[in-house]
Amino acid sequence: MHLGPTELLIILVIVIVLFGVGRVGRIGGELGTAIREFRRGIQGDDSKKDDKDNDQ
């Protein structure tokens, strides 16, 4: 399934109408923060594993 620019624009308009501009912006910011924290958590776990491997 491929979404073109027209379909994406229609979906964006529907989301903005349902949630409002302010809430959509807040959700986007929270999603970005969550992704960033998830990546840091994964990198932190990898570095701990590397430290344990180096100690042995």
Please give a structural write-up:
The protein is mainly α and 56 residues long. Helices cover 89% and strands 0% of the residues. It contains two helices and no strands.
List the helices and strands and how they pair.
Blueprint: H1 5-19, H2 21-55
Helix pairs in contact: 1-2
What's the quick description here?
This protein is 89% helix and 0% strand. The chain is built from 2 helices and no strands.
Protein structure class: mainly alpha
**Overall geometric form:** flat
Question: What integer is the average pLDDT?
Answer: 82
Q: Unreliable segments (pLDDT under 50, ≥5 consecutive)?
A: none
Number of helices: 2
Q: Give the strand content.
A: under 5%
What's the N-to-C terminus distance?
49 Å
Strand segment count: 0
Biggest sheet features: none
Radius of gyration: 19 Å
Order of helices and strands: HH
Helix content percent band: over 70%
Descriptive key words:
56 residues, mainly alpha
